[in-house]
Amino acid sequence: MKKTIIGFSLAGLLLAGGYATTSFASDTVTSAEKGELSWKFKNKWFGHYGRGFTNDSESVLQRAEELGIKTEGKDAETLIGEIREEEILKEAKELGIKTDGKDTEDLMEEVMLAKLKKEAAELGIKTEGKDAEALHEEIGTAKLKEEAKELGVSTEDKDLDALKKEIQAASLNKKAKELGISTDGKDLQTLSEEIYTASVKKEAEKLGISIEGKDIREAWQEVFSVMVKIEAKELGISIDGKFIQQIAQEVREKKVTDLAKDLGISTNSKSTAELISEIEEKDSAKLQDVLGENFMDIKGLGMKEMRGSHGHGKDGSMKQRVSKESLTETGTDSGSL
Fold first, then answer.
1. What average pLDDT does range 41-65 have in this prediction?
2. What is the structure's pLDDT at 62?
3. Beta carbons within 10 angstroms of residue 30's beta carbon
4. Domain of 46?
C-alpha cells in the first residue's frame, strides 16, 4: 500500500507537535455545513503552500529568493502570502493548467482537482463527473480498505467510522505486542498511554538518557532534542544559536533534498513539500526508509492527546492522560462499504 508520508523520524514528529495516522482517509474532515467542509478541505490540501518556516525569517527570505520574489520592504507575512501564490502558480503550470486571468483560489481548486484525478486513476477510481470532495472521499475510502487489509481487519458490512475504530484498535494492539505490553482487559485509552510511555522509554534507553522520576512529557522532549542534534551533526548542520524546532526543520529539509537528488529529481526552486510529493510518487518506500517511520506510528495515538492534561502517578512521576474524544475521533462521513 502506498501511504501518505506524514512522519519524518522522531525529529519531524515532535516538530509537528504530534503525529497522525498514515491513512489518507483519516484526515478527511466533514461537516453538516457544505461551506465549512469546503473550507477545511481546501486548507488540508493546500496548507503547505508558503508555510513550514517555524518563525524563521531566514527560511522565508531564502524561499522568496528561490522563487524570484523581491523581498525589499516586505515583512514575513507579506512574503509568505506571495510565496503561496507563486507556488500555486508554479504547480498549475507544471500540471498543464492555463493560468491566464485566474486568481489564486481558482488555480488552487484546479490544481487540487487535477492531482486528485491522477491519484484516483492510479487506484482504479472513475473520475468522470466527480468534484474534488467526492474524489477525496473515494480515495480515502480505498486507502482505508487497503490499510484494513494490511492489519487483517475485515471491511465487510462496515461503515467508515466502524472500520476506522477497528483499524485503530488493531494498530494499537500490534504496537503493544511489539513492545511486550499486555492488552488484556485494557481499553484504547489505557493502551495508548502505555504504548506512548514504553516507546519514549525505549528511545531514551537507546540514547543513554535517564528518565527515572521524570514526567514522560519531559522525557519525550529530552529524547527529541538529543535525536535532532545527533541527526544535525551527521548531516553537517550547525546548531549554533538555533531553537530546536528550527534545527529539526533543517534536518528534515536536508534529508528530503538529498533523497531527491539521489533519485534524480531536480530540487531547483522547489519547496520541501513539493519534493516530498515528487519523491512519494516515485519511491514512497525509500522516502519512508530515509526519513523514518516515527517511533510511535500507530492508529489512535497522537501527541495532541499526550500534551494536554496530566496528573501524578503512583510512582511520583507525571502520568499523561489520553483524551477519549481523540481516541474515538473519526473523519470521513459514515457510509456502507
1. 64
2. 86
3. 17
4. 9-50+135-308
